[in-house]
TrEMBL record:
Spans through the membrane: 132-150, 156-175, 187-213
Main location: membrane
Extent of the signal sequence: none
Protein name: Sugar phosphate transporter domain-containing protein
Ranges of biased composition (kind: Low complexity): 313-324
Keyword terms of this UniProt record: Membrane, Transmembrane, Transmembrane helix
Cell compartments where the protein resides: Membrane
Amino acid sequence: MRRKPSSSIPWGTIGLWYAASALSGVTSKQILEEMTCPFLLSACQFTIAYMCHSVVARRTRRSELNDPVETTNSYRVLVLSAWTFSLGMNCFNSGFSIMHVSINETLRALEPFVVVLLVACTFARDRRLSRNRLISMLPIALGVYLSAISNKAFSFPGLAVTMLANVFITLRAALIKRIESFIPADVIFSSTLYYAMQLQWLLAGVSIVHGGLHRRFDFNTKEILFAHVNGIFFYVHHRCSYIVLTTTDLLKHGIANAMRRVSTILFSVSYFAVPLHPTNACGMAIACVGAWFHSYALQHELHPSHTHPTNASNTTSDNKSSESSTKHSKSKNLVV
């Protein structure tokens, strides 16, 4: 069963989400500085995350890990969405190996551009984007631009990899929208970890065979423990994001996610003792405002709550029928 949205904000979960995101990004950067193999890092992260989720599901007596998918077509889309998300996270980790955590997270804020482009060109040709949603692109673009030009770690290969991550994650969201009415959200979450883990180990094996691992690990206690800690942070980050999304709404989650990126950037800058240029800080603030505006516009598109007073009585039945068609739209980014 899906959780019903609540008017209260889970501040504790949001705080844990922020902490796990920052620590996951910092530890991922440290690991990639040693082995420079994003596929192996992603494989370890998804494996540990799936193990953690298995323990949590058994302790809470949930059966989503073993719940069957009703139709073959839904199952195929579910697996494809997991693989797509897996590739997106691998590209995101590749960005860590090319650039600093701060600029990598900043470029991830360009994801709304990919969403708007795909909605306009492919997925919804008959759907017109709202003016507010298009206007929200301007502060996001300006903020990312200011951050990029003032960050020495910026590189065009890193930009390309991060934008590819945005494309994969956006495609995954589109696939989830096709099956979210038929498959419970918890099953989608656990299946994403499971099938993404399988694909990542396949890609990691191919990468290692072709020389993708530039350093052989000794697999001592310290390295094994550090990898497990990184995987736990990875799981907590995505699980908390999922909980916030399913217990609030798109607007609150979008605002929280924008602030989560800012907190991760500030923590990474402080941890690695990287000087923060004033233009970079200004860009982050502007992009954060744009992300909030975009979340507001998207929320208004999916859940229009303002009707004209004279038409309120005529639209009550229409609103009730529309709720059933949009009540599952929140879960399109179950792992963010």
